[in-house]
Each structure stands twice: as structure tokens, then as C-alpha cells.
Amino acid sequence: MLRWSRVITVSLVGALLLAACSGGAVEKPAGTTTPAAVATTQAATGATEPTTAGTTEPGGSAGNIFVYSNPTTFPNLDPSVSFSNDSVVTSNCYETLTFYNPPGSPDVLSPGLATSWEANPESTVWTFHLRDGVKFQDGEPFDATAVKSSIERTKKMGVGASYIWDSVSEIKVIDDLTVEFTLSYPAPLDLVASSGYGAWIFSPKADDYGTDWFQAGNCAGTGPYSIESYEPGSRLVMTRNDDYWGGWSDGQFDTVVFEVDEDATVRQQKIEAGVADFTYEVPPDNLPALEARDDVTVYVNPSFQNLLGLLNTQKPPLDDPKVRQAISYTFPYESFIANVMGERATVAHGPVPAGMWGHSDDLFRYTYNLDKARELLADAGYADGGFDLLLTYATGDLDEQQVAEVWKAELAKVGVNLKVQAMTWEAQWALGKSDPQNAQDIFLFYWWPDYVSPISFLYSMFRSEDQTLFNLDYYKNAKFDALIDKADATSGVDRQAATQMFIDAQKMLIDDAAAVFLYDVANVHVARSDIKGFADNPAYPHVVFVYKLTR
Q1: How do residues 128-155 score in pLDDT, each as one tens digit?
Q2: Which of 131, 178, 225, 376 could form a disulfide with 326 if both were Cys (CB 3.0 to 4.6 A apart)?
Q3: Kind and range of the H or E element at 458?
Q4: Are the CB atoms for 110 and 197 separated by under 8 Å?
């Protein structure tokens, strides 16, 4: 997936067209949580009237309110459509059949609404055995019929992440607690079923309710919280589902308040003042200063997100692999991370982030080497450089802006003039989808998966497209296409063999220099230090499973 706050809302319109992307969904390594004291003392201000964390509010009791200061609005709350920042809400109302565990866990998946599952040897028939005694928040029973109706509704609507179910040709109710999926091609349906987008199971009355009902601030899942009130663009309040199948213990939160605070400084101030419990995307320059206080904790963990510079492989001079390789040697990867990003990024080894299956630290990595860049440019007929390149980045993204400025200075040293242009995401993407001969030469681009599999990275950004959607480097390689298709199909049968295929496919991309793999992005979250139980899970970016927390 693309940049969390800018891109995914656009993808609701495009339906993403990722038919073969049936492999896994957002990636994660062995990340550890690094607490650090945080802070300064500033009064919290903001456009919305703050809800004091830990105080008494309607529907809650003293100390039982969790306040999340969220950077963005919630584009769509329909569980079949949601494919953006709304996941922080949907993940507390709805549940999936399987759950992707955080890095370092003994098992990749845990039971969710399914207690066990198995596939035939070809991974074309999957059977899920369902949890008994569960009901939806509207009182409807959870059973195999509800699973069938949920996934069929999502497939039929054909938006958001519905494509993750493209391999499914038939869903059969065996009995109340057993559901069988027949696939048109092998796929790791256990991973698909753990996705934080498009895999939610919801009340069979969803069609009766309609998408407008969900959008108005209603939900009908099996999860621990339901929506009590919703002020679009301002605040959403959830209260606990007393009938939740998991039960309740003393100290858990009765009420969850999501306040929309687009100003990063306001989010930081609310945390410092104690009127919010959790946030992310505070001003990066303030993180070191925040490590001075003990009433706030900063969590820094690896994510399954990375930043790439997609190179226009169809437009001269970047249509020459030697020129692309030369450009790959001009970025000061390690010094940029050390001096600009700090703990917020790590060096990338190819397109699949560290910690995800399919990643390999043994892949060749371009380093900062201007002499090598000059040598390759000379071999390609550009001994003194002498050409211009256009780089575009998202307006307002300070990290991308600094990448662009630093890269411009380094390219000048080899005689290449880099023109840098900030653009809104919509304008940047529109330019990228135009004729490659008129498009940007370098497209700064974030990506993370829908469900944790290398296919989420390799298919969308690099598989040949007749009509450009997210392959914004316009890379075309029939051998690469065939290899990732085979790896994806194999991943449902033999994940170890599929891993090696995905690694071999990445070698092709690196040899061809289809993109510059700038760095893997870290997840940085800030919370009040009295919040206990938070564990970052990169498979579900920025999601807080509030049910697991206490104060």
C-alpha cells in the first residue's frame, strides 16, 4: 500500500486491480520496543475540545477512558470498503479469522474468529473451524453463514482491499462452525484472512444496513468496542461491548476516544499535557527532547514500510540500466539515516522490508560511491553527466523533501541536474500514470503491504502493467513476472520455497536498478507512560488494540 494518509483514500476509487496479489499482507521483523522518557510541558491546544484522558465521560468510569490523538480523518468506516486510516477504528470493532502476530512471536498466526484451519496439499481448498459462542454487536450469531456473507459482500463491492480474495471461487458452509473455501489458484488464505483491510467479518445484516449506515458512525462486528458517537473530521467515541466473547477484566478501558488532530505540534502537546494517551507522527526534531521526561514513552519499532525512489525505466536516459545503476550509487544512504532520520529508519536491502518473510540481508546493496557512479555514466555515454532529471515528492512530507535536497546536491557532483518538485499526492500520481515519456524520472514513494507477503511489494510496484496504476517505474520483465506469480502460488503450499523465489526476484530488480531502495521506515509512537500492554504490530500500522491495554 501507499503512503498511509495520502494514498489509500485514492485507491478506493481505483479498486487497485491487484488480481494476482494473493500472497500476504503487511510485513514485520524481529523488532523490539525501545521505551524512552519523553517531553516538555506545554498546554494542549487544538481545533477540537480535548477529552481528558483518564477522567469520567459518558459511558466510562474514572480512569477508564483511552484517548487516541489521530493525525487524520477516517475516510470510510464500511468494513468492506475501509482501506485507510480508518483501520484504527475498524480494528477495535471487527475481527478477522486469523491474526498476524508481532515480530518475535513463536507462531506467524494466531487464532482469531477461527480456532483452527487447514488446506489440501495444493492449497486450493481451505477449511476454517470457527469459534463457538460468539455473536455480533447487533445480536446476530457469528457462524459460517456470516463468514460467507461478509467475504462475498466485500468481493461483490470490489473496492478497497477486496482483491485479496480474488483467488476464492466458492465459499461453502459445511456446518454452523465450519466454512470451506475453494480457490481458483493456490494462495496462502491463512495470511489473507489476517489482513487489516478487507478481511473483517461483520453482521449478515450489513446489506440491510447499507454503506451509508456504517459511514454515519455505526459498526456491527464481533470486537470488544462499538461506535457510540461520531463527529466526522473531529471525534469518534467507542464504548465497550459488554457481550464480547473474550470477556472483561478490571482495569480495561470502557471508552475509547479518537480525536482528529492534524497538527503534529498539537498532538505532541496533548500527550505532554496528559489529555491524550497515544499518538504518532509528532515533529521528528522534537523526539530527542521528548526523551527527557518519564511521564511519556516513545516506542520505536521496525515497520513493514519503506521509502523508494522509483526510476522511470522507459524514459531516456534512465531507460539504460547502467544509468539507473549509476544513480543508485549517488545517494548517501547511511549518512542520511544517521544525520537526518536517526532511529526512524534503517538501511534497506531490496524492496521487501526487514523482518518480513521474503527479506534477505544477503541481497546486493548499492552504497554511496560517486566514483562508481561516474564510471557507469561514462560507460553509458555520459562521461560528464550533462542531463536533467525530474524528481517529485509529496507536498508537506519533510523527510521526502530532505531526501530530494540531499540527492540533488550529490547528483550535481556527477554532472546531473536534479529538478525537484513538490506535488500533492493526487497530482503526483496523475503525472506518474501519464505517458512515461512525459512522467517524472524519479518518484519518491512509500509502500507497505495489505497482508504480510512479499507479493504485496513486488506485484504492485514492479509487475508489468498494461495500464499504469502503481508500477510507476514502468518496469517490464517477463521472467520477473513469471517468477513472482509462481512464488505467490507456491506460498500457499511451501513458504520456504516461495521465500527463495521472492529473493531471486528481488535480485532481478536490484540488478536492473528498477528503483532506489532508500530506507526502511520505523514505526514511532508516543504514549503516556502509565499505559500498559501496548505492543507494536507492523502488520496493522498505527493500530492500537485497546482491549489489550490497561492504565
Answers
A1: 999 999 999 999 999 999 999 999 999 9
A2: 376
A3: helix 455-462
A4: no
